[in-house]
Amino acid sequence: MENNRAQWGSKIGFILAAAGSAVGLGNIWKFPGKAFEGGGGAYILIYLAIVVLIGFPVMLSELTIGRAAQANAIDSFHKLGYRGFKWVGVTGVAVAFIVTSYYCHVGGWVLRYVVSYITEAQTVYADPLGYFYGLLGYNAATGETWFPLTAILFAAVFMAVNAVIIIKGVEGGIEKFNKVGMPALFIILIVLLARTITLDGAQVGFAYMLSCDWSKVGFNTFLSALGQAFFSLSLGMAIMITYGSYLPKHENLGKNTALICTMDTLVALIAGFIIVPAVFATLGSENVGKGGGFAFASLAGVFEHMAGGAFFGVLFYMLLLFAALTSSISLIEGVVAFLTERFGWKRKPTTIIVCTLMFLIGCLYTMSQAAFNIKGIWFDFANGVSFPIFGDFMEFLTDRLMIPLCALGVCIFTGWIWKPANAVHEIELDGKKVTLAEALGTRQFGKVYILLGINEIGAYTAADWAAQYKSLLDLVREKQPDAVIFIQSIFHTTQKKSDSSYFKNEVINERNAAIAQLADGKTIFYLDLNPLFDDENGALRADYSGDGVHVRAPYYVQWRDHLYRFGVVK
User: Fold this and answer.
1) Residue 59, Cβ neighbours under 10 Å: how many?
2) What is the pLDDT of residue 456?
């Protein structure tokens, strides 16, 4: 059957979408602070080594699995013949769901700050920490709490934007947005970097980031860099498997992976060389931090002490907004892709339901920050059982447990289960033409479906056609000795096409009758597809086809459902 899954419209579209998924809030508000704590250049060198030695191979593995299987993150493992490893995909999809639940609310906070710096920058400057706490429903001076309605409303708007993009599909929504969002993100980065360079005192920050203070490097530094790389590159989240499944075979997976890793790392490095020197120049090195509190509260002081601070504040939060959106849409797509493919649900209602559930769960994240005492249960060997706020619990669960577990599963699957030879073969396709025998020799399949068209319909007699078909079946059996083979009938043409060309339905019927005789009813089965699409005269329905020969894509669902019902062995 022809593959009717969505595909990227262009190479640059895929690169920007995948890089957009990798480039997120972590690149901008976590990496600079971690680099500062980890000895500046020393941390950068460690991070680069981890990206090259670990991040690149894991991302390449995920993209390879997705493209080879042409399925969502969960079904990819089943489709490749290893149903027992579906847990890796399940973990990844669960990570995507949980992360987006709180990520969308942080995106809402970012959106609120874009508006704040446009409408009331001076109010933010007056009490940066208090302003941030107020957004979350808390007054630090009085201890008063209230429902964080503003934060939740902006989160709803942020999630609605995501939903609109996802509903429009892979090419029309995700790819199109990233073609605008990623260039805009890089332009803002360059503008902010240029402004930082002009700040008095920034040179000290640049010097720190370019020097290596190995005294600050310890075991935790390596763990920090590893976690940052995994989260930043969107590994272990079902994203790259899903995005890889939309890739055509002619794309070079190795080069594309290298480009994605390079773009993501470049954003992190530029962000580090913006934020750390800017803080050095305005607030002093002791004020360099990381995370939401630093991004929303501490950096207000940077913009306050900077000429044109309100303008550059808007740019900074626009940068965060684009980074958040490019990541969140990829996370949501991983969940939506699974549900639409596995259950046949429509994209639009599925997206609305998924986004609504994520948003509602995420409300607990926002409320737990200040207004409500919502806790989670966490255990580690150092501290035993603890009860962190719900937001911290969600991050612990994904960052420290589920993401590493999923990434480890991908590595084990690629290296020991699926075998490197299969992965290497998929990687090396790179648009090269392969023979049918070579394609069948890549791995063993449980079922093989055969569908031939009508291009050579007038060149052979029915007997010759059957003889050639038998040679094909013999080849398939040689390469796939244990597979069950399904012969699909040749499609009829419309009555108009049949009457005006050599693609005559009478001849097609002769060929179908001949190849039907090749089925033994044991390991080779014949499936007649024509009743699905024929009119009352036994011709392809005119409204089902655009050219009189091929079935329109919307009707592939009927085809698929027929194969699900009859193209299986009980």
Assistant:
1) 29
2) 66
Cα–Cα distance, 251 to 20 (Å, whole number): 18
Residues 6+ apart with CB under 8 A from 540: 491, 492, 493, 494, 497, 530, 533, 534, 548, 549, 551
Please determine, for residue 416, whether its predicted confidence score (pLDDT) is greater than 60.
yes
Mean pLDDT of the chain: 90
CA distance 170 to 177: 10
How far is residue 421's CA from residue 355's CA, in Å, rounded to a whole number?
39
Whether domain 11-425 has CATH 1.10.4160.10: the reply is yes
Q: Which two tokens stand for residue 207?
A: 């010097």
Residues 178-229: tens digit of each pLDDT: 999 999 999 999 999 999 999 999 999 999 999 999 999 999 999 999 989 9
Per-residue pLDDT tens over the stretch 282-309: 988 888 888 777 888 888 889 998 899 9
Considering the entire predicted model, what is its pTM? 0.77
Q: Map tokens 């020799």 to a residue.
A: 441
Name the phi and psi angles at 73, rounded to 5. -65, -30
Q: How far apart are CA 156 and CA 133, in angstroms?
A: 19
Give the CATH H-level superfamily of domain 434-566: SGNH hydrolase (3.40.50.1110)
Q: Which H helix or E strand runs over 116? A: helix 86-119
3-state SS of 481-549 is CCCEEEEECCCCCCHHHHHHCCCCHHHHHHHHHHHHCCCCCCCEEEECCHHHHECCCCCECHHHECCCC
How many whole angstroms separate alpha carbon 359 and alpha carbon 104?
A: 7
CA atoms within 13 A on the CB side of 84: 4
Domain ranges for the chain: 11-425, 434-566
Under 8 Å CB-to-CB from 194, ≥6 apart: which residues? none
